[in-house]
Amino acid sequence: MNEIIDYFSTIPSAHRAMILAGGIALFWLIESALPFVKFSYNKWQHAGINIFFTLTTIVVNFCLAFILIRTAQWTVDHNFGLLNWLPEMNPWLYAITGLLLLDLIGAYLAHLVEHKVKFLWRFHLIHHTDTWIDTTTGNRHHPGESVIRFVFTTLGVLLVGSPMWMVFLYQTLSVVATQFTHANIALPKRIDKIMSFVLVSPDMHKVHHHYKLPYTDSNYGNIFSVWDRLFGTFSYLEREQLVYGVDTHMQPKEHNDLKNLLAIPFQKYRSPEDNA
Ligand SMILES: [Zn+2]
Ligand SMILES: [Zn+2]
């Protein structure tokens, strides 16, 4: 555990970039060899859009990182946050508890609120407009959403009282988990199902990308599936029945055009019922 703490305390930005790029490359190869859905799309053009949004997410997080670092340091200095108020525990249990709580506040809660608050949905919608879900979709987030998520991450760090190594560990696991759950692959159904009792599995997250409610408003989990199961937001749909996208924006000229995707949050709001 000490080695893990040491490594993530000072993880170089270059290593983080390599993990991100390496993950995309790995899942790209697997999904090209064994695709779950045979999309008729231009994989490179589609990836271009999603990688643009990945880069804007990196820029937003990089520019704001000092806030996160100061917040984490403040919680350590002032003994603030849930982890600091719990009794002393085994380092592994401490790390898993911290990761679970960061996942709850910084990811699950953030995601749920993005679906429930119209103003935030306008930004998160860009992630959902993708009708060709593959590993590059994982980090397709409008820059506005990246800021929203950053605020929740900071809130999570504050309430959990997590040291910075834990935040970096969480973010690294999250990047790879996201690339995995969006990859256009299909695990054997039994394996996927067993996995979904602990972690968000590819099938579980893809239900969240089904184009119609109520499925879009379920399975908000990021790394751990426990929060959806605990709070009753878990749902299941057979993978053969999935249709990706969001019913309000199914036209490629809208969801496959960078300029339009950037503009969507500022366009007239469309309620899903209009298209029912
Ligand atoms: Zn969502
Ligand atoms: Zn997604």
Explain what the structure shows.
The protein is mainly alpha-helical. The chain has one domain (2-275). The chain has 13 helices and no strands. Helix 2 (13-33) packs parallel to helix 8 (164-182). 39% of the residues are buried. One zinc ion binds at residues 111, 115, 124, 127-128, 208. One zinc ion binds next to helix 10.
- Strand share of the residues? under 5%
Associated small molecules = zinc ion
Radius of gyration from the alpha-carbon trace, in angstroms: 18 Å
**Low-pLDDT residue spans:** none
- Helicity, as a percent range: 55-70%
Alpha-carbon distance between the two ends = 51 Å
Structural classification: mainly alpha
Assembly level: single chain
Shape: globular
Question: Into how many domains do the coordinates divide?
Answer: 1
| Count of beta strands | 0
Question: Helical stretch count?
Answer: 13
> Largest beta sheet, briefly?
none
SSE ordering:
HHHHHHHHHHHHH
Task: Provide mean pLDDT, rounded.
Answer: 94
SSE arrangement:
Blueprint: H1 2-9, H2 13-33, H3 43-77, H4 82-85, H5 91-116, H6 118-128, H7 143-160, H8 164-182, H9 189-195, H10 202-208, H11 226-230, H12 252-255, H13 258-263
What are the salient characteristics of this protein?
single chain, 276 residues, mainly alpha, 13 helices, transmembrane helix, membrane, oxidoreductase
Quick summary:
This protein has 276 residues and is an all-alpha fold. It has 13 helices and no strands. It has helices spanning 2-9, 13-33, 43-77, 82-85, 91-116, 118-128, 143-160, 164-182, 189-195, 202-208, 226-230, 252-255, 258-263.
